[in-house]
Amino acid sequence: TGMRTGNLGLFMSGLHSNQRTFISKGTYLLLEKCKVLCYRNLFKRIQLTSGSTQLPIPKISLCFKAAGCPDVSDDAVECVVANLIFKGFVRGYISHEKMTVVVSKKEPPPAQTR
């Protein structure tokens, strides 16, 4: 449920508490790569609840902290969002000058089946 809801703290605690089991079954690295899906779902929730196409990075950072990343910086959030854009999970761009993520008005967030 942590991955579906974008709750990074819940996802990471589940991953670490079952780490030995996942390693023995050979699935740990696969699940570690699923962290990007958790980021995507969190960003999608932030985007949909804000109702705006312009999302200030400091506010996104606050949402990341509320979702279980207590020591995340604005630069780290910007890096995560840049990777989400690069991988096609978010349609938009980052305005470094205004410290804002601008998402597409015309195209909705990609479906979760990707």
Structural write-up:
The protein has one domain (2-103): Arc Repressor Mutant, subunit A (Orthogonal Bundle), CATH 1.10.10. The two termini are 18 Å apart. The mean pLDDT is 88. The protein has helices at residues 2-5, 8-17, 19-25, 28-33, 35-50, 57-66, 74-86, and strands spanning 54-56, 92-95, 100-103. The protein has a three-stranded antiparallel β-sheet with strand order 1-3-2. It is mainly α and 114 residues long. It contains seven helices and three strands. InterPro entries: Csn12-like, PCI_dom, WH-like_DNA-bd_sf.
SSE map:
Blueprint (H helix, E strand, L loop, with lengths): L1 H4 L2 H10 L1 H7 L2 H6 L1 H16 L3 E3 H10 L7 H13 L5 E4 L4 E4 L11
Antiparallel strand pairs: 1-3, 2-3
The average pLDDT is 88
Distance between the termini: 18 Å
Annotated CATH homologous superfamily: Winged helix-like DNA-binding domain superfamily/Winged helix DNA-binding domain
- What is the CATH T-level topology? Arc Repressor Mutant, subunit A
How much strand content do the residues show?
Answer: 5-15%
SSE run: HHHHHEHHEE
Q: The biggest beta sheet, please?
A: 3 strands, antiparallel
Q: What value does the Rg take, in angstroms?
A: 15 Å
Quick one: CATH class? Mainly Alpha
- Spatial strand arrangement across the major sheet: 1-3-2
Name the structural class: mainly alpha
Shape: elongated
Query: Which spans have pLDDT < 50 for at least 5 consecutive residues?
Result: none
